[in-house]
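Class, carefully examine what follows:
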Amino acid sequence: MTYLDTDKQTYADLSITESASNEQVIYSLFSKTETKQGKLLVLEWMMHPLSDLDTIRKRQEAIAWGALPELLLQEEELDFIEYYLSYCDGIRKANVLLSCATIIDRLLRHDSKRYVICRGVKLVVHLLHRLEKWATGLNKDAPQLMKESVSMINGILHGSELEEVLAQTYGKEKRLSNYAIDKYDYLFRCVRLQSLKELLSVVYLLDACRTVHRVAKEKDFCYTPTMVQTMEFSVEGVVHPFVKDGQTNSWEMSRGNICIFTGSNMAGKSTTLKALALSVWLAHCGLPVPVKSMICPLYEGIYTSINLPDSLRDGRSHFMAEVLRIKEVMQKAVTGKRCLVVLDEMFRGTNAKDAIEASVAVNGLLENFSHCHFLISTHILEYAKTFEEDPSCCFYYMEAEIVNDTFVCPHRLLKGISEARVGYWVVKKLLSDLKYS
C-alpha cells in the first residue's frame, strides 16, 4: 500500500484533526461511529491518505455500498470482548475433573474473574455465529473489500479449531458447560487470540464504512470521485463542508499546471482553496467528497502554505517563513513526485514591489514542474496579469463588488482576473466614524 506524502503544515492548514484557530476539524465529519475502534479506523484513514488507486477504489466502493449491515453486536458487548481478550488472569488448559469439581463453588461464590471469562466466552461465541451468518449471506455483487473480508472470515472460521466451536455451540450459545467455557477460554485467549482480533477488525470496518456512508448521504457528498493517473483535474459543485449554506462552485485546470486565484479581501479565496485541497485530500483517503462530481489526479504528495507562523525563537520573519516554505515544497517537486501545492497569498510579509517581483520569479520556476499542480491566490493583480497569456497558467477569481455603497460578495468563482478593488472602501466604511477626544 502506497501512502500520499504530506507534512505537519498541511495537516494544520486543512484542519484535518486539529486546528490552531478553533476551527472545526475535518475528522469530526466522519467520527460518529458506534464503536471506539471504528472511530480509530476512520482516524487512520483520514490521517494517512493513499496514493494507491486500487486501495482507494476498494474503499470508495465499500463506503458507497447501500447494503452495509447494522452493527453485528452492541458497542458495550464489543468493548467487553476487547476487555476479555486482553484479560491476562486465569489462562489455563481445560481439565474435566477440575471443571466438575468446582461447579458448586462457582455457583455459590461470586467470582469477578470467572464472570469476565464466562461472559467473554459467550460473547465471542455469539460474535462467531453472527460473522458466519453475515459472510454466508453476502451478495455476489458486494464490493471487493467486503468480499475480501468474507474470505478472511471463512479462512479463520473454517480453517481452525473455531469451526468446531461453531458446530458445538449452534443453537446453545448461552448454555455452555463449565468445561466448554474453560476449553473455549484457553482457545480464545491463548491459541486463537490473533485470529479473533482479525475477526473484530471486520466488525470495525463495517462500522466505519456504515458511518461514513450515512454522513455522506445526509450531506449529499460524492461517494466515488473519479481518480485518474493523468493530470486531468476538475470539480463540479465544490463547497467547504463547514460553510453553512455555502455557494457551490465549479472549477477545472483548463490549461497549464498553475492556477492563479484573484479577488478582493473577504471574497472567499482562502476558503475556496481549502475546499479544493480538502476535496483532493478526502478523495485520496477513499472518503466521500463535498462535491457533486470530481475528476482528480492520483497525486503522490499534497502540500499547502496557508497559515504560516513566524518564529521569535528562530528569529524568522513571516517573509522568511514564506520563502523557506516555498523552497521546501519545490524540493518535493524536484524529486519528480506528482504533487498538489496550494500557496495562499504569497509574500504578504513584504512590501508591494518586492512581493510582485518575488511572485513573478516563483511563478517562472513553478512552470518547470509540469508534473505538479499549483493553486495560488493573490491580491497582486500585476503579478497575475504578467502571466495572462502564458499557456502554463489559468485564472479564476472570486466575484465581489461595491453596489450602492454596499459590499456584495456572492462567493461565486469565475474564470478570469479580478478587477475589484474594495480595500479602500472597507477601511473608509469601518473607520470613518471614529471620533477623537
Notes: The longest strand covers residues 339-344.
